[in-house]
User: Fold this.
Amino acid sequence: MARNLKWVLLMVVVLCLVTKLEASEGDSDPRYKSCVEQCQKTGCVGDTCFQHCKFSADGKAIDGPWYMQEPLYLRWKQWDCQSDCQYECMMTREEERKRNGEKPTKYFGKWPLKHVYGIQEPVSVAFSALDLAIQFHGWVSYFILVYYKLHLQSNRKTYYEYNGLLHIYAITVMNALFWSSVCHSRDVELTERLDYSSATVLAGFSLILAMIRSFSIHDQSAKIMVTAPILAVVATHILYLNFYNLDEGLHRKVIYGIGAFELVVWGFWAALTSHPSKWKLRAFFASSLLTMCLRLFDFPPYKGYVDAHALWRAAGIPLSYLWWSFVRDDAVFRTTVLLKKSK
Assistant:
């Protein structure tokens, strides 16, 4: 039965990979390009006009003294003439396509999403923030458990040998979710760099945690042998993104590769372990495989707000709760075992 389930899950992942949709680039549409050019000259798209379009995209006044330059807070948020023209032309063009019975298309590699109070991807931001809250709640509940409810050693250290790793994991995952929320709010080069870098750190450390816990690695030299090559890959990738080429396609491949390897590690342990909470580990593994499909799927946003990435973010919320539930059970299990050995 377990073997059949594995094959079913594998087929699901394969189907997710082969059913990924392709879409043409809407930003190459002559009508869209003409709209943007005209907007930057006139400051208007139809009846919608932008006051700050009397400034160039770099914030300098087209004509007029220095005190007429665009306010700093607008430049910081990157609400410039070019961005507003691109967004308004994109939405106008998509309305035309809808009336003509044409399917939505991508602009600059992304689906057209409706903004809410200047937030580019409001649904993804909301789910990322909620996931961050769940992660924080899980970390705090774990902290209270190991330091105030379980037995401690005479030096006030926990018996749970993976305690330090889980604290680092909590910080890295919350940091990644924070920058993910920021990037979904406003996708510019700086926020992309911070989002990609923090996601790479999280992926690398999650793999380290998976290997050390799954294989019960306690020897320091063995830990270094596991950790060093993963950290080297993570550091190299971050340096490449930040100082050579901010390549989104390469970043996705690296994250998917590390994530797939991590799932293989968790999957082997889930299949072979006799852990008292093995059902939670297996549920986490199976759910993670299915959730991966949402990350690989690519479809136009529903009602202009909900796309595949937003659904993937939503699916991560119950996974975060399940993960910390297993971690708490694992802490109780390992503390009980080590207490018996110490007596």
Remarks:
- The first strand starts at residue 44 and ends at 45.
- Confidence is low (pLDDT under 50) at residues 17-23, 63-68.
